[in-house]
Each structure stands twice: as structure tokens, then as C-alpha cells.
């Protein structure tokens, strides 16, 4: 990445920002998966409370994202990201001192503020402000790297816990925010909507890119179609994968078979993101999203209709996860293509509200579906929810074709 002239001299900074994503997501969002047993043993927190921290993180992000987005459009992302790194460090330090559910959950509120200020949408806005018309490919590459966060931080968290305990582990993560992440954020250049010395042609091209493809009178309808499409797909993508092992076991696979098949999800998602990052610019982002939103429900409907074998389950995981990988990239890049760079951060902030609320509700909803209705019914409900997202995206594609 650093050596390619296509990144306009920003290669080293983009590599640094990729590192901050791995540290940011790995030390916050993914860490409870490893910490849960120690938190239960030492301070009596059950699984629901431990993962309730993630729910607080998402809801906090939904509450503050619109205001943060408006500020990012005015002054760029550097100050926000630096403050976010400090807030994440503070939240992790408070988490290391937790004595019970109240202090534990309060720490996640602080982490959620830091997360909203420095990760989530802010990283994509930074790339849009740095890379211009190369944003889609770079966001795809960044999301590809972000997919490694769990692979890096799950074993790292476990190793640090074994050596020093969970409290010291969280202090190490807090120190990473200050020592590694903060200096990288501080290197982000100040944002200018247009270079002062840009030639007239470049100014015209930049202004065209800022306007987006949606006419002003159609923006409200387009916004709600995008929000509905990605919220519906996100409700499934943040809920169903957490219960794949249980679903496969209920359908007759052994635990060992279910585990290794479910583990195919990560590589399939990363592979789909890689393909989209390399070749996706040849297709409009909304048509790529439409394909993913069609493939997901088709797979959920097909699995209950075929005998449950290891091959059928593996095919489902590979194709369903590939669909999720494509949609996750489209979720970050489609708003830029539709609405332009002008107000991009504010638009992402507004989209965060319905999306984060559905993301936060997804694990509990699917836990109830699996427990009360079983595997086949859960897959059918998943297909129905995703079909709503597909219908919304299809309406958006037709709207753009008419325009």
C-alpha cells in the first residue's frame, strides 16, 4: 500500500490508519469475547452483562454520531480522532478498575464516545477527505485489514491475560491508544474542501464529486431507502452469525463439524471484501449491494430445503458470508457515491442511528428466535428480513435509473 503511487503520497499514513483500526476494534469490540470468563470469575459478571457493554457502545455511537458527523464536515477528522483515542484509553483504564456491573457498563459508555469519535464512520470520512475518487477502493482495503482485528487481538488478549491478568491487559490496551494510535491520528493532515492552488479543471471535477448522484429533491427518499436496506441486512448480519454453531448442531451436525464450518465465515468475508476492493469500482456500488442483498436471503431460504450435510453447511457459510462482506463495503461506500463528499460525514452520522439500533438489538433477537422457533424458522425469518433490505435497494436502483 505504501509504495503505490495510486495513494497520492498517503501510503504510510494509510498503513498507520490500518494499524489503528486493528488496535481500536481489537481492544474494544472484540475483547469481551476473551474477557468474559475472567470477568465472571473475578467480579461476578454474567455473559449478558459482559456483552451488554457492546450494546452500550453501539447505542452511544447512535446517539452522538449525527453531531460528530456535522463537525467532521466542517473541520476534518484529526481533532476528533485524537480526542477519541484519549477517550478510548480513559474508558479502557476505567474498565480495568471495574468492580461490578455499574462500573463495568459505565466504562463502556466512555469507550463508546471514544469509538464514535475515532473509529466507526470517522475512519471512512478520513479516507474520503484524503483520497477523493479513490475512496471506494481504499475503504475496501481498510475493511479488509480491519477483518484481521479479531484474529490478532483474540490470541493477544488471551496471552496477556495468562501472563498478567485481565486488569493489566486492559491497561496495556489503554497505553496502546496513547503510544501508538494517538500519534498516527495526529499525523492526519488538516482538511480543505479544495486545494487553494488547484487548476480550474480539478476544481470542477472536485465540485462534481462533492455533489453526488442524487438530485436534491430525491435525497430524502434515497436516504431512507439506504437506511432501510442496510439496517435490515445488518439486523441479520449482526445476529445470525453468532448462532450458526447452534443452528448447525440442531440440524444434526456434531459440535466439531459445526465449529469448523462456522469458522469459514471470516475467510469468506475477507475474500469477498478483497474482490470488491480490487474489482468493485467497475460496477456501481448500489448494484454490488443489490447482489449481496439478494444472495443472503436466497441462501437462508435454500438451506432448510436441502439435507443438512457438512457440504451444504459449508456452502451456506461461504456464500452467505461473502454476501455480508460485499454489503459491509457497500454500507461504507454507497453513501459517498450517492450523496457526494459534501456533507458525507453528516450523512454517515444520520445513517448510524437506525443501523446501530438494529445492530444492538440483533444478538438478543436471534437468541430468542433460535431458542423458541428453531433453526429452520430462524433462517426463514432471516430471509424475510433481508428481503426487505433487497426491496429497498431495488427501489433505490430504479430511482437512480429513472434519474
Task: Describe the SSE topology.
Blueprint: H1 11-27, H2 32-43, H3 47-75, H4 78-96, H5 101-118, H6 121-131, H7 135-146, H8 149-164, H9 166-186, H10 200-211, H11 219-237, H12 244-250, H13 255-262, H14 265-279, H15 285-302, H16 310-339, H17 344-402
Structure explained in plain terms:
With 403 residues, the protein is mostly helical. It has two domains: 5-189, Growth Hormone, Chain: A; 203-402, Growth Hormone, Chain: A. 80% of the residues lie in helices and 0% in strands. The longest helix is centred in the C-terminal third of the chain and has 59 residues, at 344-402.
Global shape = globular
The count of strands amounts to 0
CATH class of the largest domain: Mainly Alpha
- Please write the string of helix (H) and strand (E) elements: HHHHHHHHHHHHHHHHH
Helix content: over 70%
DSSP strand (E) fraction?
A: under 5%
Structural class, from secondary structure content?
mainly alpha
Termini separation: 37 Å
Number of domains: 2
CATH superfamily of the largest domain: MFS general substrate transporter like domains
Domain Major facilitator superfamily (MFS) profile: 1-401
InterPro entries: MFS (IPR011701), MFS_dom (IPR020846), MFS_trans_sf (IPR036259), Proton-linked_MCT (IPR050327)
GO molecular function: transmembrane transporter activity
Pfam families: MFS_1
